[in-house]
Structure formats: structure tokens, C-alpha cells
Amino acid sequence: MQVVHVIARLNDGGPARVIAALAGMLPDWRHHVLHGICPPGEPDISERVEEAGATTERLPGLGRTPGLGDLVALAALIDRLRTRRPDLIHTHTAKAGVLGRIAARWLGLPCLHTYHGHVLQGYFHPLVNAGVAAAESAVAGRHHHHALTPGQAHELRDHHGIGHAARWHVLPIPIPTPPVLPRPARTVPVIGFLGRLAPVKDIGLWLKTLREVRRSHAVDGLVCGTGTDRAWAEANAADLPVRFAGTTPTAHALAGMDVLLMTSRNEGLPLAAVEAMAAGVPVVAPAVGGLADLARIGAVRTAERTAPALAAAVIAALSQPAPAAAAAFASLVTPDALAADWGRLYAAVAGRDCFAAAAPDGARPSWSGWRSYC
Fold first, then answer.
1. Inside any domain, residue 181
2. Which CATH number covers residue 269?
3. CA separation for the pair 167, 227 (Å, rounded)
4. Cα separation, 117 vs 358, whole angstroms
């Protein structure tokens, strides 16, 4: 059986790393990835995806910026999919999700779209958000849609009205457990950031929160990652003891921090949070997207998305060990733990399994792990 993944770019972020995990944990499926080009300065992990067992192919015109290139990309996508006739199309990220679902409807092929996060909140002006939501609803049709947490499913399916309730699935993404390295001795605690330096991550609020913590506690900062906001962040952190380490292996990044502070405007099920949970690093974050679900099970300490509230939560986290629920949840979402669930989901969407019968409330089958928590 063949699945074709469609993604805007294979940068070193959650969606691309998830594709690599899926290729490695579902060997019965042949994985082919159609993708765009990473912009200058953004790491490309195509080789990592190929090492996991997938084949990759650049799609002309596919990129993040809207324009006439989208029509070129759509035509090329239809051509590639018509030639391959995969058993399943699995789309990732906003632009690729729109084009992939249009192409799937045109060709009559089954499609699953994963919302790793979404651009309906936290990215654009409210009027633009409304337009994006209308576009999402228009292309959703009767395709299958996948949320990473129950809260995300409720937001997208019920609040934004995207897709058909009977074609929504709730399943965590597979997140490999990074090795746990010993933490070096340090004289003051380190507050960390791990991820893309992009507007939705709001590094500005992270810096404000660090300043707020330093009003009463001696702490340093560590920023691991790169992106469009790095130069701005470095310029605005000149008065702070913050080290910008750039792209850093996850295990080394987590060994260098005592608390992972997230200040995102929106999240799906962030890999950085779950990786920190597995490594025993406490996570402090606003209750947005899937982070609210992690807070409900006691795995993440959340606070209002303001510098004073997040600073108070960081100070509390510094004096307490990471909650046991954090490591327990991280162990349930490894590729080995989720392989059977993902295999059943793919088979169901491809029409090769009857497990996808709608539940009485209209929801599709959900991961049993959430039911044990919620």
C-alpha cells in the first residue's frame, strides 16, 4: 500500500519529523513525500526523512507564500497523484493541506489532513483569520481530518465548523523519545526555549517573561532554534543573560535547561513539550491548543498568556520536580506505542478497514489513551 504525503517544506519542525516517524513505524506502507523548498537559512531534513524509509520529491511551485505559484503547484500535484494513484493522500501544513485536498477531490482519492497546529488563530489579522477559516471549510468537503488532541478537535470541528463530524479522528502524533543526557552543574537555573523562532511562538513574550522572573530570581536564558525572528530576538535580548544556540540536538538542548518555557499563540501537540516531559524537564506554557489538553492531565503547568502570570508559573516550576504524569504521557506517544493505532487509521481512511464506523455521538474512533485521561 502506498501513502503520498504532501507538505509545504521538509524543515526541521514538527510535521516533517512526524512524517519521518510514520515512515519508520509503518513499513507496510510505502511512503512518498511531495514537498516544496525550504527558504534560505532554514534547515532541510529531507535526508532524515529518506533515511527513515520514505522517498521524497520536490513539487514545483509549492511554498508558503500565496501567489500564482499555487496554481503551478496544484497542476503538478494533480499530475503526480494521477500517475501514482496512491491508496491514501496524507496532507500536512496549511497550504499543502488546501492544495492536497483539492487534488484529492479532483482525482477521487481518499485523503487525511492532519492539523499539526492551525493558522486560524495567532498568525493573522482577525479578518484574515475569518477568510482562512472560510477557505478551510470550503476545501474540507468529505475528506478525513485528524486532530492531535480532543481540545483541538473540539476547536476545529465544533467551533470553526470544519469538515464532517463523522470524519474526524483524534490521535496523537508519534514522538520519539530523545536520549536523556546528564545536566551539567550550574550556578543559576536556566529557562529554555526550544523550537522555531517564528511569530506564532512569540519570542517577544518569552523575553518579557524572563525579565519578569529576573526581578526576583537569578536565572539565565537559553534559546535553541532559529527562524525569521532570531535577529529581532537577539537585538531585544541585549540586556539579558541569554545564549542563542541556534539549531541544537534536542537531547543537548534539554540538558541545558531547568524549565522549558513556551509562549506560543497557538499549538497542536508540540514535540518540544513532549520531549521535555520525557526528559524530566518541567514545562510552563499558556493553555493554547493541545497544551490545554496536556495541562488537564497534569503534564504541563499552564498560566495566562502574560509575562507576570507565566513568570509566576516558572518560579513555581523551578522549586518542584516535573510531574509524574508528564513522563507517563510521553511514554504513550512513542512510535512503537502508536504504530498499531496509526496503522488502523490509515487502513480506515483508505477504505481497507471497517473500524472507522462512526460513534453514536458522531465522532470517529479516538485514541484510547485520551479516554483514560479525560
1. no
2. 3.40.50.2000
3. 35
4. 24
